[in-house]
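Lay summary. Proteins are chains of building blocks that fold into shapes, and those shapes determine what they do. In this project we predict the shape from the chain. Here is one chain we studied, written as its sequence of building blocks.
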Amino acid sequence: SFNVLAMTTKGYNYMVGLLFGQAQYIATERGYVTQNANMVVLYGLYAKSHLYFGMEVLLLLVLFHANTVLPKAVLYSWSVWLFGINIVAAPWWFSPQSTNSFWMQKSWNDWRKWLDGTFDKPNIANGSWAAWQTKMNQNYRNRIGVFSKAGVLFCNSFGRLMLLLVITGSLHGSALYTGVSQMDQFVVNVERISAACAAMGVIVILYTATLRTSVFTREPWLKFPDKLWKISVYRGFVRIGLFLVWNGLYFFALHVETGTNSVFRTYFMTTLATICFMSVVVEGCALVGDKAIESFGEQWLPIVPDEGEPEPKSNRWRNAIRPLIFRSRRGFAYARVIGDFWYKEMDKVVGLLIFTMLFCLSLLPINQLQTMLIWNETFSDILDKKVAVQETVSEVLD
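And here is the predicted shape, written in a compact code that computers can read:
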């Protein structure tokens, strides 16, 4: 488990070094063996390099087993399961007392404060989710060009793109549309998935705009911690409402009966395809750089002539496209807002899954096992060092 954690960390830092020229060590602000690190510390360190990738691997494995014969499929995938679980669980496995109920409660409170921007420790994970998100994406946004960003986006989303392609090709399994040949069915599936992605895009924008309004945003409620549950309930109603909107759009405008496949399978596959596509779009929006927001189209803006000189003729078309340039800048800024917003939503889900995992582990004697393993490892290191010192002294005396 530790080797998987260490190699994943080295691989991530090596990739960062290739892209930006160096890999930076980030201190955990704890003694590795003896002190506990809470959720904010570990999530801030390992989310980008371990947790996102591990969660995606586990999700793909669940989808794989949902479409295969389970006993036989496990023979092919057990090692991948171990890999994905190790990546996600290792940071907490090697953090002593992480399944202790007291530390879990403290970590939960710190986690919520970190997400809301009220965390009182600015040196840990940049003090808030917003500052951490900006810091972690700063190099990707401002130090590489468009083609490099496209390469990073393609590599990060390769699994989702392949899944989207597979779903598009097998949306209805072996069933055919009435009057459509098998060769033409893929084109029809592409059109249907495209329409579904467009509908999901509208819902994503509507969801983002709604939860960022003054009515549903959490910021005004932070002054009343005992009433935060109310805004959570209100935001929950918005989520349920937009989920019902998606179901309505699908069943009234997108669903087509094929006769041999269940309605649920087609609905699930279509929804999964739209999520894959929109996740790639959101990730791309989060990579929008400061230059695009602040100075896009600067070379096409009207030229200010020197005093006494006539205005250049090119200013006619430059003045015509000036509103478009400023709209584009606002569009880039809003695209980044959408990307950051959905990254935060994803971090909430990932964090909730991790706390669920820790709660399940807390039902087992994990604390005792961790204490025993760490104590034995530490005691063994002390003995090795003592023996090495004695051997060195003996060699010198002899």
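What the prediction tells us: DSSP finds 13 helices and no strands in the chain.
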